[in-house]
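We close this part of the discussion by returning to an individual protein. In the encoding step, the backbone of a single protein was reduced to a row of integers, each denoting a local shape. The sequence in question and its structure tokens are set out directly beneath this paragraph.
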Amino acid sequence: MREGSLEAPTRHPLDWKNVDFFNESKLFDELERVFDICHGCRRCFNLCNAFPLLFDVIDESDTMELDSVDKRVYWDVVDNCYLCDMCFMSKCPYVPPHEWDLDFPHLMLRAKAVKFKKEGAKQRDKLLTSTDAIGKLASIPIIVNAVNAANSSKMVRGWIDKTLAIHPDAVVPTYHSNTARKQLASHNTVSSAPIACAETTGKVAIFTTCYGNYNRPDLVNDLVSVYEHNDITVDICKQEKCCGMPKLELGDLEAVERLKNSNIPELVRLVDKGWDIVAPVPSCVLMFKQELPLMFPDDADVAKVRDAMFDPFEYLMLRHKGGLLNTEFKEEIGDVSYQVACHLRVQNIGLKTKELLELIPNTSVKAHERCSGHDGTYALKSEFHDISRKIARPVVNRVDKDQGTVFSSDCPMAADHIAAGLKNEKDVKNPMSLLKQAYGL
């Protein structure tokens, strides 16, 4: 027997094209097997609400074992898993190559897919995961002002809570009519010959992401500024749709496939022309690096995009390794409290953001590897918002205690969610914005 979790765990492809994948009876057999193992271990009790919920119902049952737990509770456990992947990556001693072969997140994904195929989804959940449609509508001039005003109105948010069950205290992002893609539509790609090093070509096409395009165009612009300051040739993907992560977390795997079929051909075209791909949001990078390759293991184009996809700071540190990073910083940042996003940790690239920021003189970064509890949509839902705040409390407390006045996270949604719970005021900035500031751009 080989112990799991002592080396990089083996991730099996998601066999979602197999008819047995959606067999509810076989799903419940696997849920019982895995839940019983988790009950005997309990190392993941402090990661999210799925595990303590499961352990509590077992402890409160007649036999204090899984055999006396109402099977309907299984769905509550599934609903409380938001696929952060941290149990698989950092806690579980039974991940493959261990013979028990546990992959709790992908089992939860399978359950979500079975539930979606059988029941569909709430209108709210369909709405929240339709990021392209919402972004296009909410960013229309004039309409965008009404949307932003409504999202900041307590009265309107109270009505939205009653009708859609979106929590009135949840942080909702601002929309912009002058989107990132509009701002960069006339962007002139630098024509100087790019210099390749390590795995990088020195030519980067930016996948702006729904969030970067409609909600935080400043992140995309900062990314462009920093990369060009480092003599990296930059262009924007000519067309893109949502990466598919929101639909994946909903269990709508067919929608994920449709989005894949739209995005991959354009990204492959760029890769074939010598471009690397970078996206400003960790979850979107992870989607192309991990989830799509596991869903479509035999798709050569998906594998080609996976191998050309980079986290922004991962890319810059690879350039630094080759002596090509501009280290002529003009401004120090000071002490930075930094939350390491779960979907960045799962990429297994190390703390590249921390490493790069600490190259800036008189700058220190205190990293907190704890979940924000946000998950893109989980913290927005009325039934889960208070739980998400509880999950975030440990990292909120740590950031509050830090001496620095700057708080940062690669995930802009996690940053806002954590910042909303802080007692001590912090200057909330994305790491790329801090790097741009350090360069004096």
Summary: The chain has a mean pLDDT of 93. The first helix runs from residue 24 to 41.
